[in-house]
Amino acid sequence: MSSSPAPVPAPAPAQPYGRPPLRTVQILGGAGADSSAHVRSLTTGLAARGVRVTVCAPVEAEGEYDFTGAGAQFTPDAVSAMRAVCAGADVVHAHGVRAAARALLALRGRRVPLVVTWAGGGPGADGALGGLGRVLERHVARAAAVVLGSSSAQVDLARARGARDVRLARHAVPAAPGAAARAAAADPGKTRAELGAVGRPLVIAVGSLVPHRGYGLLLDAARDWRGLDPAPLVVIAGEGPMRAELAGRIEAEGLPVRLLGRRRDAARLLAAADVAVLPSRWEARSLLAQEALRVGVPLVATEVGGVPELIGEAGVLVPYGDPNALSAAVTALLADPARRRHLSKAGRAQAATWPSEDDTVAQILSVYDELTHRR
């Protein structure tokens, strides 16, 4: 039995005024959730507008975020592969300083404009390692045609590092697909039962298990919550190099904390929680904060980076490094249902003021158009 011929993909539509389709390369320096989700959303919007998109990223990021399914060509992030695809690009867009450093290697000797989204940007490491990081930031900032910061703090840092053209670009958190949105809206009691939080409060944190997330402080606070009746269950959804250290503390200290590993249903978990916690040392435009406010979960977060600007009055802010303040804020919320209802409503209202995915794509596409017209 003969097989049917493979369908021929439709050509990308031409840009206005008969120009050929714009060709962009999106470079990710890792598989972090915030940047990967943003690139997936951006790819979808650009491809829908006729832009030819190539994504260079770790293979595991393609497996999780399916950039190909969003309309991109995918290339692993080896410098040799990036150099080949960047040769035919009109604009290269790197997401993060490390990604930008690799992009500069791939672009060496080529006059292709580089856009850098300044992911991260918090206090760096001390000593020689911190010094090298600052040198890299200065090199990237000065080489980029345009730097985009998702918070005012990032804009200020990029400008301090010598960037010529820095712009605020508050990118949107991608909307959950239909199935995920329906799951998030499902009976939260079922989710709580699956997690073991029946008859007790549920506190959630989401993010990779790395030092800057502040999970050590969260465990310090959880020691205090053992004395509450009933004691809340704390769940942390994420994976990373600190897992063994955190798991050891949880067992040794008898903490009411569960490590869930990497989860694809964060929206469903958040919708079932009483309080979300963001104990980070640094955040720019936190994905957890956006998702929590959008589904109406009261948020306690450290007052760092772009967090105050992002959440406004719709969350409770505490100083970083103060587990007593974190513990007290969560305890007060758990004891005050009216306050939680107020923050739930305020969170949804704050989320409504953020740019949409279409707004984000339109702003970035305008930057690309500006740069290609300069050439």
Report a brief summary of the structure:
The protein is built from 16 helices and 13 strands.
What does this molecule look like?
This protein has 375 residues and is an alpha/beta fold. The protein folds into 2 domains: 19-172 and 356-374, 3-Layer(aba) Sandwich (Rossmann fold); 178-351, Rossmann fold, CATH 3.40.50.2000. The protein contains 16 helices and 13 strands. The strands form 2 sheets. A 7-stranded parallel sheet has the order 3-2-1-4-5-6-7, with helices on both faces. Strands 10-9-8-11-12-13 form a 6-stranded parallel sheet, sandwiched between helices. Helix 4 links the parallel strand 4 and strand 5. Helix 1 (33-48) packs across helix 16. The N and C termini lie far apart (53 Å). The model has no long low-confidence stretch (mean pLDDT 89).
CATH fold descriptor of the largest domain: Rossmann fold
Mean pLDDT: 89
In quaternary terms, these chains amount to: single chain
CATH class of the largest domain: Alpha Beta
CATH superfamily of the largest domain: Glycogen Phosphorylase B
Blueprint (SSEs and pairs):
Blueprint: E1 23-28, H1 33-48, E2 52-57, H2 59-65, E3 73-76, H3 79-86, E4 91-95, H4 97-106, E5 114-117, H5 127-143, E6 146-149, H6 152-160, E7 166-168, H7 178-184, H8 188-195, E8 202-206, H9 215-225, E9 233-237, H10 243-253, E10 257-261, H11 266-272, E11 275-278, H12 287-295, E12 299-302, H13 307-311, E13 316-318, H14 323-334, H15 337-351, H16 357-374
Parallel strand pairs: 1-2, 1-4, 2-3, 4-5, 5-6, 6-7, 8-9, 8-11, 9-10, 11-12, 12-13
Helix pairs in contact: 1-16, 3-4, 4-5, 7-11, 8-11, 9-10, 9-14, 12-15
